[in-house]
Amino acid sequence: MEFHSVDKYVGSRVRGRRMALGISQTKLANALGVSFQQVQKYEKGSNRISASKLLAISHLLEQPVSYFFDGADEVGGREKSLAPADQQVSMESREVYEVIRNYSRISNESVRQGLRKLISSLAGGK
Hints:
Blueprint: H1 5-21, H2 25-32, H3 36-44, H4 51-60, H5 94-104, H6 109-122
Helix pairs in contact: 1-3, 1-5, 2-3
């Protein structure tokens, strides 16, 4: 069975936001009134998320529905990345969400700015 690329994309956005908030699949499933296996299927894109469930998810994960579609126009293989393969990073990876979650917990703006500069210099930026 082949999954639709937009369903996979929306599911990955749900997964990423859920992980960034530190919410388990079970906790989200209970709040939605579905099984955690159903949440897994939503996140993989193997089951489509109905409009009513997506609205509920948007409230539970504190994002507008549009958040889950931001960037969806580019999915589907129509456009290839221009970045070299060794520089491509999956925005849905656990590592990325751990960095984002921990970064957002830093309240001192000068520390955040220093961290951005450090990351930029390590990546070869200016």
